[in-house]
Amino acid sequence: MRVLVLTKIFPTSQRPADAPYNRLQIGALARRAEVEVLGLLPWFPGRSWVRQDDTAKIPAAERIDDLWVRHPRALYAPSIGRPLSGLLHAASLWPHVKAIGGRFDVVLGCFAYPDGFAAVLLARRLGVPAVVKVHGSDVNQLAADPLLRWSLRFTFRHAAGVVGPSQALVDRCIKLGARPTTSRMIPNGVAQEGFHPRDRRACREALGHGDDEAPWIVFVGRIEAAKGVTELMEAFAEVQREEPRACLVLVGDGPMLAECRDRAARRGLNLRLPGAQARDRMPLWIGASQVVTLPSHAEGTPNVVLEALASGRRVVATAVGGIPDVVTSPVLGRLVLPGDADSLARALLDAIRRDDDPEAVAAQAPIISWDESGALLHEQLDAIVHARPAHDPTPSRPHEQAPR
Predict the structure, then answer these.
(1) In whole angstroms, what is the distance from residue 54 CA to residue 297 CA?
(2) Rounded to whole angstroms, how far apart are CA atoms 402 and 388?
(3) Which pLDDT tens digit goes with each residue over 34-74?
(4) Contacts of 47 (CB under 8 A, 6+ apart)
(5) DSSP 8-state assignment for residue 187
(6) Of 174, 218, 168, which Cα lies nearest the Cα of 320?
(7) Cα dihedral value 328, 331, 337, 338, nearest 10
(8) Cα radius of gyration rounded to whole Å, the chain
(9) Are 228 and 320 in contact (CB under 8 A)?
(10) Residue 101 burial (C-beta neighbours within 10 Å; 0-12, 13-18, 19+)
(11) Are 107 and 126 in contact (CB under 8 A)?
């Protein structure tokens, strides 16, 4: 089976830490199928004049891990032009798809819009099925925009299948028109060679905090309001009143970084802001924690939750997206409603007062490896490629008759 992957969320030499979930899952898929990756670079004339732009430094093709990734520029219209992005992406990519040559069995669009929309149109030109891989914000946020909801409905209705990391997300795609029989939840994996139960003191020593024995509450992600950082700061003020030694560690970068620093200084909060961290350091920050928290307003199935549980650390998070599919018992953590700072504070206090067994947490967590996740994706794509609906005259192996 030969798979053409279209996605604007994929690592590059300039941004190697971007979208590790796509890199790892597609990499696992490539061990079972022949995969061509078009890592799209959204572009418009004069882009470098209006924003900092490093796309000119990204080569036309490069090797990311074991994958060769081509980087075609895909024309898009910012802001009010977003409803045109799907058409512009497809038009920009068609010459590249023809230039690759070869005959594909399936087109996989990773992100519902504009990538999935473009995948549907290009798959029609190639005479093969299109499958859309959704992630969370591409459905939860874009569907709220009336101008984009039609494009999402078109994408899902004309896709041969949809896959996503949580059942809640897949169910929402079905409501928007995806086929129930070929829509499937495929969990994200965890790089278990890095994320596994570790000694907390050893992790802190490796981070340069070996003398710190305070209970750490660790947040990993973009420091912004949508991730619940405002409520987290309010909740932590209450936590520190009852547990003065507690420390909040916000690992990441984002628009609220300076605000959090200022608020902590004004209120005397024990806050650490190590900034964005290299991917290979993330197991240490998680391993150094007493509890990992993610009070987001909306999510798919966030990898930090899976990584925390694989590391044997309980999670306090909001009951949104696919998180309830993962945090299924008190052993694994507690869920609260988004925006509820009081409940968040109580859950965090309970978590740092517990004496959990990391091995027991990791053993109960519903975690799979990235290789298993890639195998499930391959299984679903293969099933769609070899399915031939009675009303569809396209042969089950369309690449055998597609013109060069």
Answers:
(1) 30
(2) 16
(3) 999 999 888 776 555 555 556 778 888 899 888 889 999 88
(4) 53, 55
(5) -
(6) 168
(7) -100
(8) 22
(9) no
(10) exposed
(11) yes
